[in-house]
Amino acid sequence: MGGGDIRESFLNELAPVKTIGDLEQLRVRYLGKKGILTAELKKLGGLPPEERRSAGALLNETKIFVEAELAARKEELKELDLREKFASQAIDVTLPGKYTPPGRTHPIIRVMREATSIFVAMGFSVEEGPEVELDYYNFEALNIPKEHPAREMQDTFYVSPDIVLRTHTSPVQVRVMQRKKPPVKFIAPGKVYRCDADISHTPMFHQIEGFMVADDISFSHLKAVLESFLHRIFSPDVPVRFRPSYFPFTEPSAEVDIGCIFCKGTGCRTCKGTGWIEILGAGMVHPHVLQMVGYDARIYSGFAFGIGMERIAMLKYSIDDIRLFFENDLRFLGQF
Amino acid sequence: MRVPFGWLQEFINPGISVEGTAHLLTMSGLEVEALETDGDDVVLVINVTPNRADCLSVLGIARELSVLTGAPLNLPFPPAGAKPPVIKPVPASEIAVEIRNTGLCRRYAGRVIKNTRTGPGPEWMARRLEACGLRPINNIVDVTNYVLLELGHPLHAFDLNTLKGGRIVVDTADNVYQKIKTLDGVERKLPAGALVIADAEGPVALAGIMGGANTEVEDSTRDIFLEAAWFEPRNIRKTARALGLASESSYRFERGADIEIIPAALDRAASLMEELAGGALEGAVDVYPVKYRAPSIEFRADRVNKLLGAEIEEDEMLRILNRLGFAAEKSPGGAISASPPSYRLDVEGEADCVEEVARIHGYDKIPSVLPCSRLSADGAGAREDFIRLVGGVMRKSGYSEAVNYSFMNPRALENLALPPNDFRRSAVVLLNPLKQEESLLRTTVIPSLIENLRHNRERGLKNIRLAETAKVFIRTNEEQLPLEPLKLAGIAIEQRTHSFWRDAAEDFYLAKGAVEALLDELRIKDRHFAPSGEPFLHPGKSADLIAGGRKCGYVGVLSPAAAEKFEIRDKEEITVFELDLDVLLGLLPPPPVYKPVPKFPYIERDLAIVVEGGVKAADVIRYIKNYPSEFIEDAVVFDLYTGEKVPAGKKSMAFNIRYRASGRTLTEDEIEVIHAGLVKDLLTHTGGSLRQ
Ligand SMILES: [Zn+2]
Questions:
Q1: Percent of chain A having pLDDT more than 70?
Q2: Which CATH architecture has domain A107-333?
């Protein structure tokens, strides 16, 4: 059998091979110890030298051809095999993944954290005070003695004649000043309580108190700190305005408005047509408050502000009912 | 304060629209909350802050507007300094006024008007009163109210002929008078310290708050004694609060009335009465023992600018203060010396003057400059960081953050079946709760979360996981502030029928897993769980967390009895947990110290034993880990089986035990010996047998 015939018969036998096993059998049949090509190669020894050279060259060429064909087909079959395996193992990849759906952040906590981070970035530390507070810290030390008309500004829950649920986070000012010498610079986030419940008031809500006292703090600093904060938490182009107001523990006092984010200042229901929304109260710490904790009001001055977090969250997320915050309805929480 | 624009225009022509007026007032501290149309007039609804008693009148608003616009004031009475009209004094025989407490009443003045015809007041006056929220009564009373609104000073009209003995005595009620029947027909017990106006026989008015019924002006009244006085603010407020009685009059007195406007207010009212009720002014009385003396406040212009961060000229400061009615001038020492007008009792010191300058100058004209200050590395602080971390871990376990009121229904304590001595019974009680269901402060967060769960279930939500980080309040004694420990509580309910990958674990283990995930995150290793005795939990499906050697919380299935008391009727199990975050915060370990990872391989053995149903996996693991062999590195439980293949009442548990030596490779042979010994001893210890 000549090299050309072997090549032809090999190709005829290779054509129908569909499995790696059949391919291996074919390999043995041609290249095994008793294979057709092996046998032909063995016969070479019996040929005359001049024939042997040309026949040998042809057989070797045929052997290389067969080996290459076998290898190529093996790759093809492996590829085919793998594809069949993949096809048989295929699953519905559109079925849901297995995981615990993460819980959601409460919008109030979310804005509290965001606001806290903004002030911390500005160098404010974070302080805390009791929610059930002495009348002294909640009122007296903040320049609101008993029988002061300003007490009417805040409907108070009483635990005893001398103990109240704090109506604002401002008592933390006094507690921190009693503990630390100036300069001080901190915020105090937390819950506060007012004996008041209607469509726009809840008996508990959240505030962030801000406070900064040093020997050179001015009203212009207060303006810049609050503007920076409001621009970060809303947007850099939201207009901010300060107008005079009254709090017994600050003087001068200010109410801070932002341009209505719903109507962009043209007037709507939320801003009662004014184009402005009241967002927080602030002012320069009243000298009486400083003096009561032994800070020398001739040397030190500072500012304080109180931000209602529900209001911030309502404006930031377009929430129209404050009571939603305290129902913990997952259809509500799931959106944050 | 409601101010009809038309009335305001009688005092000033501001030269701007009502909207422009509203804006100017708002930006100077008198916030105009609304503009209400009233017939052909517009009412400015102004939020007057408690310090600005001087703005509780048309005159007061006009004065402010005059400062802001520069437009002159048209006063319905002679300006300050002009000669007042001379009125002959009331003969002492008719009315003799005696102020017995000059601290509480610094001035008491009156007018006698005779032969009036009491009847309905004119229509125009009634409309203005109504526009300002007052009810017209009769021409005499209406005039007193009209002048109160116009000039801000409260007046009271007595029926002169009902005043007994021709005497007016101003004194506190203590020990002398017990009761008064006020104009509203209510007989009131006089509180201690209440200031009253009395005649020769008894009280005829609660000073500054409300007149007495016995001297009321009625249609039959012919002769009037018209009162205007100055009462001490705190006393008025104290009495008004003690009686729960507030009036337009007390509202103004307790904020500080203008003692100097008294004669003008009386004359304005008397002339209106003459005009509208046809009487004749017969005489005047004015007892003024404590004369008004304006404080003199000294401050430096540069100090004002330092506090404001502004550069306002000293002359501009003087101009602002003088326009506001202060007597302000440069003092010889180079400071500014300013005396506020008698209607600005709120101005006491430098800070008040700074505010006056700033608000008239305009807050918007003060520049914004960020402060320079000392750097601080404090950051948010460990506690804030910890609370954020806890919230994050809980969210990863599927718990959404809840925020609830700090209030608690007293019934919740019964629903939880807490024994009388349980610390959660020591709740802080509110004296004035909004409702009975919110009359306590929470001692546990669980009732709030149960309420949230019910809310969500009623709205068709199936799978609920909520967690809340909040302070609870534990009463210690009446005088001291309560303890405010920080808690983390969670609640969950799973309805698995509609979730694709069903979790085979019992609900209890899902809740416990959330707690363990937190403890792992916090690296708190000194911990274990032991059966819990919490009365509101399923006794067989609840555990206390013991960490650092003490109970730090619990996790478990809410007992069906408690669930029913909270009116939860779900058939699925509800799991809850509550942890003491303050305690866990204290247990946070120091930063980790690296130990080299093992160099030599381990050998593991699995072991399945059949034991009594009550044997606890944790006990078996503890036994294995404490077994006296230095090679036992770890042991975990990986299978639990109860059913046909083990005898009734028994269970099979499978453990994987890992052996390793630190300095060499262990051989199978030596482990064979140790493991055989362990198995034998463990079976003896548990009374179990090897699973076949
Ligand atoms: Zn708007």
A1: 99
A2: 2-Layer Sandwich (3.30)
